[in-house]
Amino acid sequence: MNSIHSDKRIFGFDLLKALAMFMVVFYHAEMLDFSFEPDIFYIPNFNKMIQLICAAGVPLFFMVNGALTTNNKITLNKVVNKVTRLFLIAIFWTLVLRCGINHFLIGGDQPDSIASFMNKYWFLYSLAYVYILNYLIQILPKCIGYMLVIAIFSVTFLNNFVWDIILFVNPDYSLPRWGHTGFFTFYGIVYSRIGAYLKNKQLSTPICIFFLILGLALNIFTTIVMTYHDGTLYDGVNSSFPTFGAMFLSIGFFSMLKDIKESYWPSQLIKTVGINSCGVYIFHVSFVFIIRNQMIASFHQSTYPIYVIILLALGVTILCAYISEWISRSPGKVLLKL
User: Fold this and answer.
1) In this predicted model, what pLDDT tens digit does every residue of 164-189 receive, in sequence order?
2) Is the pTM higher than 0.90?
């Protein structure tokens, strides 16, 4: 998610970051009718199934980051600098946007706890955890490093899938607090290692398509199971990051797009979004909040056709990318440089 321009950039990775950022904005736009009714067995409609694909959004960022950084030797000093920068950028923009502009100008809520404060830009904190864990894996004996990744995989992805099966068999079974968990978002290290592993691997298009279909099917399965169990509509995007559904979706997109070359007309726009994905991530929530409130106030409806939300997400993504591009050409670029 770096904002630095370079002739050595890999276009496929910029394409993946642009797609991932669009998914994040599309998900945050909300305003879709999912046809959910309490006390009626829920089957995801078309709108919900499209949204469920967005479960690959954030994992793709972890995978691209892993592909670019995991196999590089890093020093403790570099890790400390990177983690400090991530924390400072997240804290700065939370204070400016959530505690400042959003609260006083557009009526957003103030954070009432440390967890609420960190939730605004949680991905930046999670990325810091990934850098720390990757450094630990680098300095620990190889077998211990592998065991650490396997342990996190087991506590998150495998554990969550097992509980999906249990609840499918017995929906009335009491789900423990750790039954569906991201383990402090440490699952990011699993995606990071997958990205590093797949960086130089070639999967055929049919296999990639199979992974995409399998991932969506598993996410639909989880959504049905958890919705029936909880009695409320399961999120299926943020809540699904540490699941096999999101994992297979992410592997499919990553493997299919990572080697695509820059050869068609929107390439420059895609590169701009990819290069400035950090800025899009930081700024998009405020724009989405303003536009959503304006649309509800102007048209007196809270849901819209999916093509409207797609256009809204595209517009916000591109707008925020060019705002970030402008900032990156000014002294303020330090505020977006990860």
Assistant:
1) 999 999 999 999 989 999 999 999 99
2) yes
- Cβ–Cβ < 8 Å for 129, 184: yes
Residue type, 313: A
Cα separation, 195 vs 254, in Å, equals 8
Amino acid residing at 131? Y
Query: Alpha carbon 245 to chain centroid distance?
Result: 14
Asked whether 1 and 61 are in contact (CB, 8 A), the reply is yes
Q: How many residues does the chain have?
A: 338
Cβ partners under 8 Å of residue 14, min gap 6: 270, 271, 273, 274, 275
Q: Is the pLDDT of residue 304 over 80?
A: yes
The position carrying tokens 């469920």 is 52
* Residue-by-residue DSSP string for 303-329: ---HHHHHHHHHHHHHHHHHHHHHHHT
| pLDDT value of position 260 | 93
Contact 233, 34 (CB under 8 A): yes
- Give the separation between CA 219 and CA 49, rounded to whole angstroms: 9
